[in-house]
Structure formats: structure tokens, C-alpha cells
UniProtKB/TrEMBL annotation:
Name of one Pfam family that matches: BPD_transp_2
Protein name (Swiss-Prot/TrEMBL): High-affinity branched-chain amino acid transport system permease protein LivH
Superkingdom per UniProt: Bacteria
InterPro entries with a match to the protein in the record: ABC_transp_permease, LivM-like
Membrane-topology descriptor: Multi-pass membrane protein
PANTHER family the UniProt entry points to: ABC TRANSPORTER ATP-BINDING PROTEIN, HIGH-AFFINITY BRANCHED-CHAIN AMINO ACID TRANSPORT SYSTEM PERMEASE
Record-annotated membrane-spanning stretches: 40-60, 65-83, 89-109, 116-134, 162-180, 201-228, 248-272, 284-303
Region named Disordered: 319-344
Organism classification: Bacteria, Pseudomonadati, Pseudomonadota, Betaproteobacteria, Burkholderiales
Keyword Ribonucleoprotein applies: no
Places the protein is found: Cell membrane
Molecular function (Gene Ontology), one example: branched-chain amino acid transmembrane transporter activity
Amino acid sequence: MQEENKRRWALPLLFLVLAGVPLAAQWLGEPFYVTLGARILIYALAALALNLVLGFAGLVSFGHAMFLGLGCYAVGILSYYGFGNGWLQLAVCIAVCALVALVVGTVCLRTSGIGFIMITLAFAQMFYFLSVSLREYGGDDGLNIYEPSSFGLFDLDGSQPVYWAAWGLLLVSSIAMLRLRRSPFGMILRATHANPRRVDALGYSVFGVRLMAYVASGVLTGVAGLLLANLTAFASPSYMSWPVSGELIVMVVIGGLGSVLGPIVGAIAYLLMEEGFKSLTQHWMLLMGPAVVAIAMAAKGGYGNSLAWLRRRPPEAAPAAAARAGAGRTERRSPDTLAKEASL
């Protein structure tokens, strides 16, 4: 019971701490902390979205930065033509990211392993070079955004509004991920990672479940891109580059695959380390690499899951699952039973 209470309160406590960042920055007279905090929250949102396919479904998407860039350009291009309405920009962002994710997912989910990784990377590079070739929108130099997204009651004008918008979206998304993780869809999705053949044999569509997760993940990453465009007032092809996708993967891995708290903790740890090393030397990557390796080796279940109470399993779970597997039944099982059995 005590461990369960710790799990229950870890996420709310983290969001309470994050809510205090703007107040602390104002008290210290350091507005930069709000900008840094907003960037962390935006990347945490993107990492949480990536975790839906990487942590839940076990699909290593090496092109997820493509959706981050699409979200940025949805704001930039519409603003370029004088459309500063945030709701319109959000609708276009969701529609474009959903369509692209549907097409890319339909193609790449026909493969697995290294094939899936290479195809997602290929699509991301294709959109990267497409954005570079758009000279009207700045090409390789990027596109300046002079008007923030306006949502009627509030505008994303400055780091403070962006911070609170990102905080609210991350909170809602985290709650949604918690509910999804325990839902029948979430259990089937996690089961496709553990044993896709058994899931398919029991009458569930592995391809369909994974495609829905991939589309949802792409849309949420695109919304993070919309916030990033307003924070930086800039849309750049560099947001779509493969190193950004790699950074998102690192955030999820060092935070903890398959958990909800993990990607958020991973984004906080990664970006704070990055800022700390940048303040020490211009060759900060020489320090960043060993630090990431050290975290990965010290906390094999992820930094967010490194505490024992986050990774303990009930001792009776394994024998119960083994007994069910030994029965050899083939009838259609409930998603809860399926998720437990497929993990064998």
C-alpha cells in the first residue's frame, strides 16, 4: 500500500514543482529559467508522445522529429500568410500530422526491427530536405514568426504563456496516458510489444492497434512543435533532423520506457544536463555523451524508474501468468489477460 501511494503521488508532486518554476524565476529575477522550463516541458510532451510507440509498442521511430517540424511549420507558414488564429493553426497542425502519420505508419508498420527504423528515418529526411528546398519560407535559414498564435482569450506571446500552455497540455496528456495504459487498448498495445504473434492469433489486429498509436503519437508531437514555434518565434528544418529524433529517444530511454513519469523525468534530466555542460565548455558534447552512458548503465530501467518501488512486480504475477499460459487456451481473452500472457 505504501509503494502504491508513492506511485500515485510521484506525478502530481512533479507537476507541483514544475508549476513553481515561473514563481521561482520571478523571485530570483531570472526570466531565462521560464524559457528553459518551457523548452523542457515542450520536449517532455514530445518524449511522452514518442513513448506511446517506443515504450508501449516497442517501435523505435527514428523520424519522430518530423512531426515536431511539421507542427512548427504549421504555425510558421500560416503566420507568413497572415493567419495568426491559433485554433486554425492547431487544426492544420493536427490534420497534417495525422495525415502524414497515417501514410508513414501504413508503410513502415509493414516492416519491423531495422526496417522500421530505416523507413521512419527516410521519411523524416525526406521532409527535412523538402523544408530546406522551400526558399520562399526561408529554406535552410528557417522562417521567422512575427505574430504569436492567438487563441482568443490568450496569446502564446512570450515564454510565460507558452510555459503554462505546455504545462497544461503535458498534465492533460500525462493523465490521458495513465488512463490509456490501463485501458483495453493500452494493454493490447503493450502486448503487441511482448508477443505480437499471440496477439494476432487471439483475434486482435496488431497492425491496426500500432497504426492508431503511431498516428496519435505523431499528432501529439506536432502539437509540441506548435508550442516550440511560439517559444522560439522560428520554424527551422533543423527541428526535423535525425539528431533531434535521437535526442527524443534518449530522453525516453534514460527516463524509463513504457512509464508515464519516465519521459518527463528523462526530458528534464537531459536538457538540464545539456544546459549545465554548455555553461562549462563549448565542447559540451564531450561531457554529455559519457553522462548519458553513465545514467543508462546506473539506472537500467530508466532514470525515472530507478527507485525500487517503481519497478517492483508483485511476486504472484509471474506464476499466475505461467499457469494461464500452460492451459493452452485459444479463445478470445480480455485485454487485461492478454497483456499479462503476452509478456511471457
